[in-house]
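We include the entry.

. . .
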Amino acid sequence: MDETMHCRFMKLALVEAEKAFDLGEVPIGAVIVKNGKVIGKGHNTRELSESAIAHAEINAIQDACQNMGHWRLTDCVLYVTIEPCPMCVGAIYQSRIKTVYFGSRDPKGGACGSVFNLFDFQGLNHYCQIVEGVLSRECSDVMKRFFKRLR
């Protein structure tokens, strides 16, 4: 996929982030793509669902698994607006996602390079390629807008 396609899919993740924003949730959005088609979408719903695990990535993975009819998301690509946390990296690992593209780093909880990179551990049976910086400014801006509104 070329850079235009990556931006297109990240913009869809930003649409999901705006849905979270409108719900009063931390505005993180995610989409999962296979063969150029979106197979799963999600945004944060932790407050709404009163669930600690209702992160954008988890919701998108669950949606993709339902749509695919199985738990293996081999050859799938995840686009997420903010760097995944350790829990979400675990779900990415377990679902066998091939590549993660994220917009902006999470310096307090990111598990794809900011705080640490869980895919750096030796001995895993699956490794995921991580690419950061797709529409970084736009992804960061929605977070800044959200937290500015809270203050």
The CA atoms of residues 45 and 54 lie 5 Å apart. The chain has a mean pLDDT of 96. The longest strand covers residues 37-43.
